[in-house]
Amino acid sequence: MAPEERGRFEQATLPHLDAAYNLAQWLTKDQHAAEDVVQEAYYRAARYFGSFRGGDGKAWLLSVVRRAAFDWLTKQRAQLAVAFNEDTHDRGDESTNPEFLAFQKCDQAMVRKALEELPPQLREAIVLRELEGLSYQEIATVTEVPIGTVMSRIARGRQQLQVWLTALSRGEVI
Amino acid sequence: MNCQDVQRLLHPYSDGELDLVRHVEIEKHLADCAECAEQEKHLRSLRSVISSPSLYYTAPASLRMRIQLATPSATQRKRRPALSLVAIAAGVLLLTGASVTIGLLLPKGTGSSVDRLTESVVASHIRSLQVEHLTDVASSDKHTVKPWFRGKLDFSPPVPDLTSQGYTLSGGRLDYLADRPVAALIYHRRLHVINIFMWPAVHDEEKEVRGLSRQGFHIRYWQHSGLTYWTISDLNDQELDEFVRICREQS
User: B112-250 is classed in which CATH architecture?
Assistant: First the structure.
């Protein structure tokens, strides 16, 4: 990589290191794996930087990070995509009749646990939306699915969290 | 718009993803319909909890450094010529596809607190094996080991009895980790030594078990009932996990 291109690469990607790491950590659920994944992603990103045509460096980098994270998960033979079939996954009617609950009572450990229990595709959508503040369109770009899928993943992710946090705050095990 | 339409669009509404016309329609509906308004309030409450900044993982400084070294900018190279060799070495390592942590090339003390603690735990474990200083109090009886710590520490370490599960207590030792004296318990599984360190946690929150491996040792750490636990052994992953599981049941 020529020095000028290297400079452009750093400018495009280094400001998003935290975003990259946050996503990697939430997907791998392991600090050291997350570091490896981010490092691998930066390596791949540097190699394919030629194909980056300017624009949203963050979405571009995050899509590389997520692919590296899913590669890692596949290698780990973690339950992952295999176990999660979008069509048959229980949708229930969780959202139709929620009892009132002040979620503020949930402590951070509960929220973390519930979020970690979500299937990876729902987890990444929630993390990118709630923690990274990306729009549906940006999440669609990062995760390479249509915007309608993003919308439904976010809704289902939240419904699932709502059910689990209700259970956890009652002292039940999820 | 009826309740069903509104509830279907509640998430994109909450995310500000609807066009203005539909957004305003839903707003109007929520003003009139108590049931839908309740759901919207519920969603807002949930979102405020799951978007807490405390859930955000920021990249450790050591990682930032590794990445900057691996992709040095022109200015960095001019300013710090000594580092460019490291950068080339790093590039070579990355190119060979080896997943090598080049943090070893960096000065000590730049890592995250977990990195530093990991180093200390490994060092402490190795020291305990090398210098015949495995135990200060050698006993397989928890009623001998537990009282021995009294007066030596500002907390009372739990000493689980795991003999029936095949993990024999060998004794206890005072050690020093995370800038404080800690309790070390030593268990044996066949010929394998397991060190388990414990000390009062800085933040009183439960933390799930995490695992990592260093220099051929397996490490697990977690936080429970106000104590931080780190355990290390050359035992295989499965048996160490089993050890951690039954330890946690008893503490």
Answer: 2-Layer Sandwich (3.30)
pTM over 0.80: no
ipTM of the complex: 0.78
Query: At what angle are helices A108-117 and B34-50 packed, to 10 degrees?
Result: 100
Residue contact B73–A42, C-beta within 8 A: no
Q: Identify the domain boundary among A78, A93, A120.
A: A78
Q: What is the distance between the alpha carbons of residues B47 and B206, in angstroms, rounded to a whole number?
A: 23
For residue B222, the cross-strand partners are B229
Among B199, B197, B195, residue whose Cα is nearest residue B227: B199
- Say if residue B62's pLDDT is above 90: no
Nearest to B56 among A22, A98, A161 (CB): A22
Taking CB atoms and an 8 Å cutoff, what residues of chain B touch A1?
71
Distance between CA atoms of residues A69 and B6, nearest Å: 36
Residue A74: which residues within 8 A CB-CB, separation 6 or more?
A80
What's the rounded Cα separation, in Å, for the pair A150 and B212? Answer: 33
Choosing from A20, A55, A78, the residue where a domain stops is: A78
Say yes or no: A74 and A123 in one domain. no
Cβ atoms of A154 and B15 closer than 8 Å: yes
Contacts of A136 in chain B (CB under 8 A): 12, 15, 17
pLDDT in tens, B221-232: 999 989 999 999
- The Cα–Cα gap between A69 and A123 comes to 13
- The verdict on a CB contact (< 8 Å) between A130 and B47 is yes
| Residue B239 scores a pLDDT above 70 | yes
In this complex, which of A9, A42, A129 lies closest to B15 when CB atoms are compared? A129
